[in-house]
Amino acid sequence: MVMALAWNILGGYAGYVNFGSAAFFGLGAYSAIVVLQLFDATLFTQIIVAGCFSGLVGFGTGYLTLRLRGVYFAIATLALLVVSETLIVNWDYVGGAAGAYVLPKRNPDILGVLVVGKSGALFGNYKELLFFLMCTIALITIVICRFIENSKFGRGLAALRDNEEAAESMGVPTLKLKLIATSLSASIMGITGGTFPYYMTFIDPISAFNLDISVNALAMPLIGGTGSWLGPVLGALVLGSLQQVVTVTISSSINLLVVGLFLVAFVIFAPGGFLGLIQKYWKRGG
Fold this sequence. Notes:
Helices cover about 70% and strands about 5% of the residues. It has helices spanning about 1-10, 20-40, 45-65, 70-90, 125-150, 150-160, 165-170, 175-195, 195-200, 205-210, 210-225, 230-250, 255-270, 275-285, and strands at about 100, 110, 115, 200-205. Strand 2 and strand 3 (about 115) form a beta hairpin. It has a two-stranded antiparallel ribbon with strand order 1-4. Strands 2-3 form a two-stranded antiparallel ribbon. Helix 1 runs parallel beside helix 5 (about 125-150). It folds into two domains: about 1-210, no CATH class; about 210-285.
């Protein structure tokens, strides 16, 4: 859900389709590993560093690629994914192609309060902590997206999505808005990736830079409806739940097929996603 909301900031509000979401996710995950190995940093420090680093990469990438439009921008973001994975594969300090193990600390505390432990702790294990943490991040991301929709910044993104040339002629600082959107989107994706090593306890380039991450981050807003915070949330709930059902009942290997079939069906029959269908029937009922 967080990845879908983050993708929607640039892809839904601004209309720039990003195929490289897994690059920012993976860079965030490996940033967390680097600060863990260098400074023995806490989980929360890792997440903050992951968000900042991915945000910086997003800013740099945006500055170089946002002058491209349409399919050319999409290809550039996909190239970023390939380049990032290749760099990590050849970096032995973080495990390279063989991957790296991440062992959570026992009984960590924050300001003297025990977070994870057997007795007197807020959470029984790290899975509970990460679940609560990701729920909190999801709520914060929803608040950010709602604020964007109702702000001058959001209206500027909508203007360049509808007609970038007209927006520029009216004085809208399109490049500045796109850079902010790219950096914010990448930062949130990096924060999400920062929780990944502690959740998996083992991470390698294939899992961190998996194309499935990019596909799901793109598919969920398209299925739910872009241009609104509610669309990615609906898409994530429906598609994520369906993928879990398919994983339990059939096999996880066909999850990407399920996503593809849903995308094709919605592009043909409901290009506005679930929100478009709801609005359509609401108007009919009115």
